[in-house]
Amino acid sequence: MQLIKQNIEQVINESYLIETLNLDNKTILELGCGKAKMTKQLAQTGINRKVIACEVDEVQHKKNLLLDIENIEFKLCGAENIELNDESVDMVFMFKSFHHIPEDLMIKALDEIKRVLKPNGLAYISEPLHQGAQNELVAMFHNEEDVRKKAFETIKNSVDKEQFKLFKEIFFKTEITYLNFEDFEKKQMNLSYNDTQITDELKYKIKKKFDKYNSGKETTFYKPFRVDILQKIV
Length: 234
Description:
Distance between the termini: 21 Å
Shape: globular
Order of helices and strands: HEHEHEEHEHHEHHE
Helix content: 25-40%
Oligomer: single chain
Number of strands: 7
Largest sheet: 7 strands, mixed
Structural class: alpha/beta
Number of helices: 8
Radius of gyration: 18 Å
C-alpha cells in the first residue's frame, strides 16, 4: 500500500468510479455523509438499493432528514459507534471522511466497519492526498498532513494484521474549478472545520499564491486521491 503516488495520470470523476462496483440489490452504508451529495447518488442510481447514511453533526443531520428520500435512512452516529446489527450491510463507503475521525477512535471505527459488513463485504475509503497545488493553498490555513498519514497507517495496519484484505488500491485525480479567489475562499476557507484564524495578512498571502495559478478566468486544479477498497476477511 502507498500513502502517496507521484505523477498520477488517471483523471476521473469519482461518481463514475463508484458506479463500476456492483451496488444494485445491496444494502449500502455511508459514514460521514455530510450534506448527502454522494448519498443521493448512491440511492438514486441503479435499482433496489437501500442506503443508510450516518453523520455526527446534529445540525447537518436534521437538514438531511428533510430530504425524505424513500430508500435512504439517515442516522446520527459516528463510524466508531455504528448503530446497526452485525453483518447487516453489503458495502461501506467513506468519502474523504476517514481522516476526520479522532485519531484515538480510528481503530475502533475499522472494527465497527468489519462488524457490520456481511462476509466478504467491501469497504470503500477515499482519502485526499497531501500533494498538489490546491493542497498547498489549503495547507496554508488547514494542514491535514499528519492526520492523513495517521489515517493511512491505521488502514494499512488493518490489512497487515489481516483484519481486512486489500481488494484494490486506486489513485486518481479530479478537476476542481474556482471562478475566482472569492469562490475559493467561500468553498475552502469559510468552513466550520477550519480551526485556524485566518488573519488579513494570511488571507493576502493565500490570495497572492492563488493568483499565480489564475489567468484572469476560471482556475482549475487537479486534486489527487487514493481509494482503498478493503474486503472483510471471514
